[in-house]
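Please check both lines for our workbook:

___
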Amino acid sequence: MTSSSASVSASPLAMARSFFSNRVLIYQLAKREVISRYRGSLMGLAWSFFNPLLMLAVYTFVFSVVFNARWGLENAHKGDFAIILFVGILVHGIFAECVNRAPTLIIGNASYVKRVVFPLETLPWVAMGAALFHAMVSLVVLLLAQLLMRGVLPLSVLYFPLVLLPLMLFTMGLAWMLSALGVFVRDIGQMTGILTTILLFLAPVFYPVTALPEGIRKWIYLNPLTFIIEQAREVLIWGKAPDFIGLGKYTLFALVVAWLGYVCFQKMRRGFADVI
């Protein structure tokens, strides 16, 4: 019996149970993926730290020194724009890495489909685990830079996991859906890169929402990244508590998207072995 033909359930409870019962497997596969990404390089895992460090240095030089960019704040530090920008890049990076990889997750692990009974629904979680590892390394770089520039870190940083949770659920829903569709429609892999790039520039990553005309602002909030990016900046930079009501609404919406994506995946997985 292949993993695609095994009897599966698509209920919300089954979705949660799948994660908790396979959490050790997800951790081990995500760990292996992160290590294999840097295997063979001279500095190994150290690159996961130096990459965001170098990028933050480049952002600081280009936007704070060359362009002398400002976020429209009074008494702003010279490197504030780079730090604000980096938060947006960090949040978008989690979303983009999972969504861009999703269409090839099943195709790239064909042996799991054909040869063994394997919980295929965990593969998007593995991609999420690897994305979160790199995001957390980037977060360490961000906090160190903020500590050097400002000399203090806000306690509201502790809210950051709470801010990320709804984005993770929303992204998982898309990842399940795209990974299933990617088996049957190979063009999806080309489209996701375009989509995540569009969402990058239609989110307040390089500009504040207040810089936009009033009539456009409401449309920017249709971008699922906008609210999370703004809340991440509130807790990581401005030292404020997040909008708990807004996060609650987003979490409910994300849970629905996650469940629909999971249902889509479980319904379509029966045909994986016939196509791959």
In short: The first helix runs from residue 12 to 21.
